[in-house]
């Protein structure tokens, strides 16, 4: 997983002595440790999950088409909407519409790919965290597949993230305030931003009476602090 604050490397289970490694973005020694781990297993593919900010989305409704023609049309729509963006992705929604996602600047990703270019590492698949989070929501809370849902996650590479969906379709995704040393302060900041998001999402049809399923994947101290608010 890669974000503005650093990178987290999770090795596959078949590598016997490999352990998870976190490297802060400002620490060259820690970054080198990740590269050394990758170089030690050059035949293991690398999958990169990018959790950067400034993710842009666009929903497209497509006419009925054969799978090949549909794929080509999606690629053309993606080029037209985000042709100059560094990182792009697509996701088919339950209603068969397509969500286009893109990040214009992905400096941490570009830096990592530059490092990998000099290493004997198999090129990996790059995905956006919003896409993966969207796929997790109905598994974590099946009732969230219908109606409004908010998945709240946090990690050391980028901080807290909120992913908002409606009927399984991505509506909004953004990084929240950075983590504080105090769980209570972080919880208050998160709840404040969630309330602000609720007001913002009124333009998409979310009202005060609309049920919103909140799924929080957070450390225990942060869970406890949120429960105390």
Explain this structure.
Among the domains are: 55-103; 142-229, 2-Layer Sandwich (Nucleotidyltransferase, domain 5). The strands form four sheets. The chain has a four-stranded mixed sheet, with helices on one face. It has a three-stranded antiparallel sheet with strand order 1-2-3, covered by helices on one side. The chain has a three-stranded antiparallel sheet with strand order 5-7-6, with helices on one face. Strand 9 (148-155) and strand 10 (159-166) form a beta hairpin. Helix 5 packs across helix 6 (220-227). It starts with a strand and ends with a helix. It has helices at residues 28-39, 67-82, 107-116, 129-140, 183-200, 220-227; strands at 2-3, 6-9, 21-24, 48-50, 55-60, 87-92, 98-103, 126-128, 148-155, 159-166, 169-175, 212-217. It is of the alpha+beta class.
Ordered list of secondary-structure elements with their pairings:
Layout: E1 2-3, E2 6-9, E3 21-24, H1 28-39, E4 48-50, E5 55-60, H2 67-82, E6 87-92, E7 98-103, H3 107-116, E8 126-128, H4 129-140, E9 148-155, E10 159-166, E11 169-175, H5 183-200, E12 212-217, H6 220-227
Parallel strand pairs: 4-8, 9-12
Antiparallel strand pairs: 1-2, 2-3, 5-7, 6-7, 9-10, 10-11
Helix pairs in contact: 5-6
């Amino acid at each position: 997983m890669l974000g503005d604050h650093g990178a987290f490397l999770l090795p596959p289970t078949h590598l016997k002595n490999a352990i998870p490694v976190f490297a802060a973005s400002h620490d060259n020694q820690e970054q080198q440790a990740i590269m050394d781990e990758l170089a030690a297993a050059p035949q293991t593919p690398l999958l990169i999950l990018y959790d950067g900010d400034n993710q842009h989305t666009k929903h497209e409704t497509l006419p009925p088409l054969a799978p090949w023609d549909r794929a080509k049309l999606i690629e053309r729509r993606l080029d037209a909407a985000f042709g100059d963006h560094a990182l792009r992705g697509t996701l088919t929604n339950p209603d068969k519409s397509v969500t286009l996602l893109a990040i214009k600047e992905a400096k941490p990703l570009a830096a990592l790919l530059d490092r990998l270019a000099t290493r004997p590492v198999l090129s990996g698949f790059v995905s956006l965290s919003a896409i993966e989070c969207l796929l997790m929501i109905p598994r974590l809370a099946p009732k969230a597949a219908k109606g409004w849902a908010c998945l709240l996650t946090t990690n050391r590479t980028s901080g807290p993230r909120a992913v908002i969906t409606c009927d399984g379709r991505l509506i909004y995704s953004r990084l929240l305030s950075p983590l504080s040393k105090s769980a209570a302060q972080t919880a208050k900041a998160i709840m404040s931003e969630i309330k602000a998001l609720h007001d913002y999402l009124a333009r998409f049809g979310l009202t005060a009476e609309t049920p919103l399923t909140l799924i929080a994947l957070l450390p225990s101290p942060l869970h406890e602090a949120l429960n105390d608010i």
